[in-house]
From TrEMBL:
Keyword ATP-binding carried by entry: no
PROSITE patterns: HTH_ARAC_FAMILY_2 (PS01124)
Pfam families from the UniProt entry: DJ-1_PfpI, HTH_18
Domain of life: Bacteria
All residue ranges annotated as the HTH araC/xylS-type domain in the record: 214-312
The protein's name: GlxA family transcriptional regulator
Family matches, as Gene3D superfamilies: 3.40.50.880, Homeodomain-like
Keyword hit for Ubl conjugation: no
Keywords on record: Transcription, Transcription regulation
SMART domains according to UniProt: HTH_ARAC
Species in which this protein is naturally found: Streptomyces catenulae
Length: 315
């Protein structure tokens, strides 16, 4: 087995960024002073493929001619939802020869179809998580994280999450300094922790149709340190607390309390990532009141304490 080689599976309808994003990260390790990866691409029959955007990619070889890799990368794309005949069987056979198997976006559907995610935790693009859970009930689907590592198999969310996962693997292989240099070359974060949410609270929640509720959503985001109890929020919309709670849930798909909790957590995470403010100062600015209250919120949702969360972002 070639040490720390990377083989990328290509197929008709593959998402080009799912391929090139992680490949650029792995290629950057050698430029940053780490041991270079041997990066190759393969299609089922060795022939060229068209990406979902129309680009033509020519692989290095057929999958059957590729040697066992250290890392097998399975990208996503439209072709992962209707795979070519024989692709799943060949993937099932070939994946057992790799030390670790990595998927990006809807590539998780291919891994699940091959039975490689049975009994494991996994994620994929948020829009496909329900499909993954419904079609493959033996897979424990986690819809929120950017990526999930379960033993030798790692799955990631959409497109840029493949970059985060590749950076995490470089850090595992070569150490934090090399991963940091690669991230700087690509002008991205060292990496988002795997349990970071795939998208912001305002994107995750529906935008209310009625102007008072829509304006309130924005006001909550701008004032996480305010009194955001249901009674106070209802006053701002001139509705009774009961009517307000029902209307908010109907139009946003979540309760006022849950929305506030997520806004505060997102704001706290941003301040931990981008500022040098202390945990006590951040807890007050985000409406938690005390560092202990903020710590409990982090542990409950992210399974990590604020100090550990910051350490992952700041060298």
């Amino acid at each position: 087995m070639t040490r720390r080689s990377v083989l990328v599976l290509l197929f008709e309808g593959v998402q080009s960024l799912d391929v090139t994003g992680p490949v650029e990260v792995f290629a950057g390790a050698g430029r940053a002073g780490g041991e270079p990866y041997e990066i190759r691409t393969a299609s089922l029959d060795g022939g060229p493929v068209r990406t979902s955007s129309g680009l033509r990619l020519t692989p290095d070889c057929a999958l059957s001619d590729a040697g066992p890799p250290h890392t097998l990368l399975i990208p996503g794309g439209e072709g992962s939802r209707c795979p070519a005949p024989g692709l799943i069987d060949r993937l099932r056979e070939y994946a057992g020869r790799a030390e670790r198997v990595v998927s990006v976006c809807s590539g998780a559907l291919l891994l699940a179809a091959a039975g490689l995610l049975d009994g494991r935790r996994a994620t994929t693009h948020w829009a496909l998580c329900a499909q993954l859970a419904e079609e493959y009930p033996r897979v424990t689907v986690e819809p929120d994280p950017v990526f999930v590592r379960d033993g030798p198999i790692a799955t990631s969310a959409g497109v840029t999450a493949g970059i985060d996962l590749a950076l995490a693997l470089i850090e595992e292989d070569h150490g934090r300094d090399i991963a940091l240099l690669v991230a700087r070359q690509l002008v991205v974060f060292l990496r988002r922790p795997g349990n970071q949410a795939q998208f912001s609270v305002q994107l995750a929640a529906q935008t209310a149709r009625r102007e008072p509720l829509r304006d309130l959503q924005q006001w909550i985001t701008e004032h996480p340190d305010a009194d955001l109890s249901v009674d106070r929020l209802a006053e701002r919309t001139r509705l009774s607390p009961r009517h307000f709670a029902r209307a908010f849930h109907a139009e946003t798909g979540t309760t006022p309390g849950r929305y506030v909790e997520r806004v505060r957590l997102e704001q706290a995470r941003r301040l931990l990532e981008e500022t040098a403010d202390g945990v006590e100062q951040i807890s007050r600015a985000c409406g938690y009141g005390t560092p202990e209250a903020m710590r409990r919120a982090f542990v409950r949702t992210l399974h990590t304490a604020p100090a550990e969360y910051r350490r992952r972002f700041r060298p």
